Amino acid sequence: MSSIDLCIVSGRRPELLAQTLDSFRDKVFDRLGINHVYVNLDAIFGSEDDHARCIDVIRQFDPTATIFQPEKPGFAAAVQRLWSATTSDYVLHLEDDWVALRDLGTEVLAPFADPDIMQVSFHTADQNWDIARRGHFHQRNEYAKVLGIKIPLFRTFPKFTTSPSISRGVFLRRSAEMMDISRDPEKQFYSGVNKPLEAYAGSYRNYIYSPDGVPVIRDTGREWRDQRHIAKTITNATSTWTVTKA
Fold first, then answer.
1. With left for phi above 0 and alpha for psi between -120 and 50, is residue 57 left, alpha or beta?
2. Beta bridge mates, 119
3. 154 Cβ neighbours under 8 A, 6+ residues apart
4. Are 3 and 89 contacting, i.e. CB atoms less than 8 angstroms apart?
5. What is the full DSSP assignment across the chain?
6. Which of 159, 160, 179, 241 could form a disulfide with 189 if both were Cys (CB 3.0 to 4.6 A apart)?
7. Is the pTM of this model over 0.70?
8. What's phi and psi for 157, nearest 5 deg?
9. From CA 216, how far away is CA 191, in angstroms rounded?
10. How many CB atoms lie within 10 A of CB 212?
11. Contact criterion met (CB below 8 Å) for 137 and 206
12. Mind listing the pLDDT tens digit for each residue in 27-75?
């Protein structure tokens, strides 16, 4: 069986983190088998007490987990740090605000029989991706601008994600080497802000895992942010979170 590392990007949200770990432990981790756990715990959203509670949640989940606690929070830096630390054939990348909707076992590795597939991402309830109409490969049409008008070039390029997914370890580690920590990590694969990384990833593919054509995971972070009036904005391929209402 192939070895799988687990990477988790987390903020100071112990309740969400615990919910995520409980959900994926029952439906995913125990069915896949995990080699080592790496967590990046950024000092964002919560208090120092929340930070300590997150540590407790992680240690109860896996006492041997490697926990990075950088002084300065940063999403891309967290992703780069985690991916660079891995050593296994495959890496399950996760964030602290998701729940699994069904059991997911070793069958999710089947698409990797195609050597061009570098990532198997989990179909999310928020993805707005119709499998029946658009298929399983997450990709985007390419356009050129002529006199300010977008003209389709009838070419597509892959879209890789930092949402829950399993990727080839070698692909993530090489991607981490080229990552610009000042930009949103996901946008660097396809938004024209990191040409070397985009060129490297461009010949590979991301397969959306959705055996029944319906989502297999759900985001819990949007509701959490909405309740606290926290808005996520992306400007020039850089993500920021701001409180929009006291």
1. alpha
2. 167, 206
3. none
4. yes
5. ---EEEEEEE-S-HHHHHHHHHHHIIIIIHHH--S-EEEEE-S-SS-HHHHHHHHHHHHHH-TT-EEE--SS--HHHHHHHHHHH--SSEEEEEESSEEESS---GGGGGGGGSTTEEEEEEPBTTS---HHHH-SB-EEEEEEEETTEEEEEEEEEE---SSSEEEEHHHHHHHHHH--TTS-TTGGGTSSS-HHHHHHHTTSEEEEE-TTSS-SEEE-HHHHHHHTTEEEEEETTEEEEEE---
6. 160
7. yes
8. -135, 150
9. 26
10. 9
11. yes
12. 999 999 999 999 999 999 999 999 999 999 999 999 999 999 999 999 9
The type of residue at 88 is S
Q: Which tokens go with 30?
A: 């125990």
User: Tokens 């991301």 appear where?
Assistant: 206
The label of the residue with tokens 């740090």 reads 81
